[in-house]
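User: Structure tokens for both sequences below?

Assistant:
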Amino acid sequence: MAKVCIVFDRLRTEEKMLQKTASELGCDAVMLDAKITQINTDSRREDYDIGDIVLERCVSYFRGLHFTACLEFLDMPVLNMFEVANICGNKMLMTMRLKKNNIPTPKTYFSFSSDGAVKNLEKVGFPLVIKPVIGSWGRGVMPIRDRDTMEAAFEIRDITDSPHDRIYYLQELVKRPPRDIRVITIGDEAVAAMYRKSSGGFKTNIALGADPEICEITKDIEDMATKASKAMGGGILGVDMMEDQDRGLVVHEVNNTVEFKGLARVAKRDIPKEMIKFALDYIRK
């Protein structure tokens, strides 16, 4: 009997759904808390009850990334692989990978100091959207529509001066309906999609209160999601798209440990079941 290990650092609805589904499919499900697990350079795979395949589901990007590196050090197959997690978790790397693979994405400007970002904005003009290169749930994402907003945003970054605050990721403000599209891809296949409608503000994150609504997976959406998944290296991903009024679909983000409880409420296909089945097929190859 196959054994699936679900690694977490905060036990959310999604991880409980995956555990329940694995049991229903007749395989053992091991829950492993990354926060209290120790690994050293003499560790071996057989030292841990981690089964045959790991689904890495940590909320913390850095914890999950480094835990994945440790698991791969133990020759443990992990979904998603370190390289995929590393690229998806950094918006700058992810955006460049999309562009390199000829996938439509909003024009994005990179600067490496507040002075450089000011010059970029002065050259390009307002508005632009500033995003932290690492982060989720829409935190730190805001439109910069004028000089006062720019100065306030940059001043905060200069004060906190964390390593990632020094990387300025500025993106065009796409002319779109007040929504975006989240597509979950499993093994490069688009299995479910939803519109995330803004609850009145700029952001469309479900975690911030945006409303999920089922989205039919058109041929364009399917093709775009598959290309984005392949560009990142595949696995289980969340591909976020916007409907640009001039260019059509553009991909603005690809997520590694994708949340799916909102989409699971409206999806036609059983998302956690598809994830577990993919994990089991992954180790059979």
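Moving on to the next sequence.
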Amino acid sequence: MHAQGVSARTAIVTDSVEIDYATLSELIAEGAAYLEAAGVGQDSVVGLLIADEVQHLIASLSLLAIGAGQITLATHDQPAMRDELADRVGATHVLVGQSEQEAADRVRIWPADRQARRASTHWRRDPASSGRLFLRTSGTTGKTNILAFSETQIGLQAERHPEYADERLLRLAGIEHNNSKRHRLYCVWNGGTNVFIDHGHADLVGFVRAKDVTCLDISRMHAEGLPHLKDAAALGGIKIRTGGSAVPYATRQAIERAVSRHLFVRYASSETGAIAMAMPGEHDDDECSGRPIDGVELKIFDQAGAPLPPGETGEIALRTPGMVEGYFDNPEQTALRFRDGWFHPGDIGYLRPDGQLVVQGRKDEMIIMNGLNIFPKEIEAALESHPEIAYAAALALPSRIHGDIPVAAVELAGASALTPPEIQRWAHPLLGLRAPKRVVIVDSLPRNSQGKVTKRALLPLFERK
């Protein structure tokens, strides 16, 4: 474990327990011994089917300690999806939490009786020789990709977050989500404190204050509701960090007004970790993603692969220590995204003269109508500026005549009776030719397990018209 010399510092906090780093080290050693006794070694790949966040973290750290591979088999996924992931990485064992009831030849229950564990004398080893930590991408645009990180690579990403050394970090998304697991490990790497809250806890503000949380890390979905919490202003002294999808300026303003001025908006990718961060005082109408973090080299390229100067829109590319070099079992996507040492996340944007990155949208979501390039983000921002629209998702509907036409699905706020024609009339003065040609109202936009809207699921709503 990298976090050494902090044995008395609190490592884990929940509603009912506190664990310091000395105790965490003992638990990892015991976990490593249990795994070795179960036949898990450096040639093994273990699936983690453990919803309990503390047990999941300890199991993950124990697997890193003995150099075994691991992949999260999320309890919120369908069994068929978990089986597919396990088969793709060649899982040899599955660790099942005490609250999960599944049986298979390769299953072990975690944790075992502590009395049944034996001492392990060789669980501390060079992180460079660690087994792979398999993480999956969110899969919003196609087949889920799998990434294979070494402990060293995760450590290099963690070093972009030195602030974790002094923070008590609470993430509302569970550890079974890719991004949450990554940041929980970053926090351990830096010797910080991981705070866990029971899902569905009735009093978030009270919990944050009672547990002395210094940083609340949330998704955009959580960010939308944060200003409306009772006593939200009581969070004014802590950092609010969000990312994972575009965070509208109106949402940023609402958080700064009603919750905390210490707002950080992160731009990141599963393949590289954090890329850029918009700091307090840097939020504006451009919805900027901030300046690239130290250690991240970022450029904007044109279609011919030549770098573009500040202010010109093109394809974002970057390279940084700790990024993967390709996808685990997808050479076609590897060739597309990893070129000449640069990772191309598929996003379009530009660098402002002040160094701030502005992400305008995904290259594969661009709407091209009669040769006019339309970013879904600009349609979504305009629609969401309507006080009765909670969320909007814009996408391209193929057209034989126009190439694409822009359409949008919206989720209304509260008990609004707003109609599609009224929405279109609202949008036209704001967007002109870019205004959506069709609008549908849905009870809720389809989202994946990480809260991102899955636009592919919306297309049939328009194809039926």
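User: Anything stand out in the second?

Assistant: The chain has three domains: 10-189, 214-363, 366-463.
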